[in-house]
Amino acid sequence: MAANDTLEGCFELMGGDFSNAGAASSELKSILTKLGISADIVRRAAVTAFEAEMNVIIHAVAGTMHYMIIDNTLTITLNDMGPGIESIELAMQEGYSTAPDWVREMGWGAGMGLPNIKKYADIFKIDTVVGEGTTLEIYFRLKGEKC
Ligand SMILES: Nc1ncnc2c1ncn2[C@@H]1O[C@H](COP(=O)(O)OP(=O)(O)OP(=O)(O)O)[C@@H](O)[C@H]1O
Ligand SMILES: [Mg+2]
Fold this sequence. Notes:
It is a single chain. By secondary structure, the chain is of the alpha+beta class. The protein has a single domain (about 5-140), classed as Heat Shock Protein 90, CATH 3.30.565.10. It contains 5 helices and 5 strands. The chain has helices spanning about 25-35, 40-60, 90, 100-105, 115-120, and strands at about 5-15, 60-70, 75-80, 125-130, 135-140. The chain has a 5-stranded antiparallel β-sheet with strand order 1-2-3-5-4, with helices on one face. Strand 2 (about 60-70) and strand 3 form a beta hairpin. Helix 1 packs antiparallel against helix 2 and helix 2 (about 40-60) packs antiparallel against helix 5 (about 115-120). It starts with 6 loop residues before the first strand and ends in a 6-residue tail after the last strand.
């Protein structure tokens, strides 16, 4: 990928749609791999996109995952309509989860998604309005990438 290339795309996400869970992040992973982005960044981007995608499916009503590469930065933005997050401080704590029992029975709800996104992203921003929805912005620096 040339340094000045711009690339973007968007996936629709549906709350409760567990049959398609992970489809958007796995497609994003394959797009990033084909662009020749380094394996470490692809891995970290895929993990964070997957956790954020699952959060929309588990906790929200509907949303989108948008990705953009510009100026050697990969930005993954998740926007959802949903309940929002009452306390971001609590939500960011490892092990904190409001996932209901039926979600936990499927193996989700360990309360590790947001802490892992923060850990693997270069920059992570979260913005939420209770009763309206949540926006996540996840950034990765691509500078120095050889493609
Ligand atoms: N998009 C969202 N909309 C509403 N609430 C959210 C959203 N994302 C996270 N939360 C809230 O933040 C909590 C912590 O999120 P986190 O991803 O860390 O854990 P989890 O989704 O509950 O479990 P895990 O990610 O380990 O399966 C959630 O339990 C939920 O209360
Ligand atoms: Mg989660």
